[in-house]
Amino acid sequence: MSAKYQRICLVNYHEIGLKGHNRARFEMRLLRNLEALLASYPIVTIHRVSGRLCVFIEEGTPLEVACEVLEAIKGVPGVARVSCGFKCPRDLDVICRVAIEALGEADDFLTFKVAARRSHTDFATTSAEMNQIVGAALCAAFPDKGVRMKQPDVTVGVEVVQNAVYVHARSERGVGGLPVGSSGKVVALLSSGIDSPVALWRIARRGAACVAVHFSGRPQASDASEFLVDDIARVLERFGCIARVYVVPFGDYQRQISLKVPPSMRILMYRRLMFRVAERIACMEGAGALATGESLGQVASQTLENIQVTDAVVSLPVFRPLIGTDKQEIIAEAQALGTFEISSQDASDCCTLFMPRNPETHGSVQAAEDAEVGLPLAAWVEQIVAAAELHEYTCPGYRRPRRGAAGRRQDEESLRGVEGASETAAAFDMDVDSGQEPSEGDAPRAVGEGGQEGPSS
Ligand code: ATP
Ligand code: MG
Fold this sequence. Notes:
Elements: E1 6-12, H1 14-17, H2 23-37, E2 43-49, E3 52-57, H3 63-74, E4 79-88, H4 92-104, E5 111-118, H5 127-141, E6 146-147, E7 154-160, E8 165-176, E9 185-189, H6 195-205, E10 209-216, H7 224-238, E11 242-249, H8 251-260, H9 266-285, E12 289-291, H10 304-311, E13 318-319, H11 327-337, H12 340-343, H13 365-372, H14 377-387, E14 389-392, H15 405-434
Parallel strand pairs: 5-6, 5-7, 9-10, 9-12, 10-11, 12-13
Antiparallel strand pairs: 1-3, 1-4, 2-3, 4-8, 7-8, 11-14
Helix pairs in contact: 4-5, 6-11, 9-10, 9-14, 14-15
This protein binds adenosine-5'-triphosphate and magnesium ion (MG).
Family: Belongs to the ThiI family.
Pathway: Cofactor biosynthesis; thiamine diphosphate biosynthesis
Binding site for ATP: 189-190, 214-215, 271, 293, 302
């Protein structure tokens, strides 16, 4: 059914309101994000209106489509509440008619109340009077429904602003947080597992535009995890959280490490290399931090000592938004986000490659540095970054790295690094081909052989 009045969605954003001088910037960021994320819906325009945003929906749009718009808006970081209803002139008779139309579209309900609010006191009727007038009109139009002030099934909102009135009977909480792009850029290590998509989501919800790095087991393992990561990124893209995924074929480097370092140290070595690569990408992207889905003690690499050992190779802060979160809580969050089903599918990535039977649980920086002696790490990092495949997603809050002097210098250095790396790569390839196999008991395990990293205890 199409509506007689202009359909709108009113967007509230508590936290942005607290930002003092920055408020306009935050509001504009949210507005731009919504404009881009709602591009496929029949939206006329989005305006700032008295401390809110108003999304104007095209004339004749049916209720079901307006509800889809509401659903799309409520998952966008920065949105505290979204209400779907109508805009009308500041005329009490019209307001009453619109309120009847709005309540008529509400889902099954038995009780309701009216909550009127004036942002502009130049409207002669007070909020309390409006509650009574509109309430009486609704009682007459819906004689079998009851008025209830505490916890009614439906609240009919009547919001009077400068030139108009917004009336709605459908209102839902948003995800809150800050608009993506208002807190800079973060490079997130994204596996196809359950935890890291949730970690990325949490960081994005605090306003960071996220660039992901995925370490694939390719060519030693299949590319299955890459498809899952793409599916995960498509979910995160709906809310404008993820801008890019750098897919890094990592299998050969793990193999190389597994040939050279004591088995118990392998996982720490893989992770230290991952962090170095992620930091290099962060540097190219101009990102201010890394993020992972680690949770204290979840697996061997996530003990306090081992976290120190991996952090020691990077100078950027490493955010671990799930560090104090239990797996069950993470699963519930992944389900709500819509990534759980995807992450539950079996796909080997680099995590299942060449795993030792007894990983070190209490590593030390010194032991890790000793184990790394002789590995051409700097060259590997450049080589890995040069081989990374870039997948792009819609993230309106994301800014591409600047191509200024610093960027050019960076690129040049990176190219030099790659030349150096290719020399080392030759040696690397020889090593892999002629590869001394590790001694018995140390044998690197290929996909499916070793399974996941064991528990930390
Ligand atoms: P998740 O933690 O996402 O469920 P996982 O259990 O396979 O995946 P862990 O061994 O718990 O991964 O690794 C801890 C963190 O390290 C991950 O949350 C993620 O941030 C990062 N990580 C692990 N494997 C990868 C990978 N293949 N690519 C990118 N990041 C990874
Ligand atoms: Mg995990």
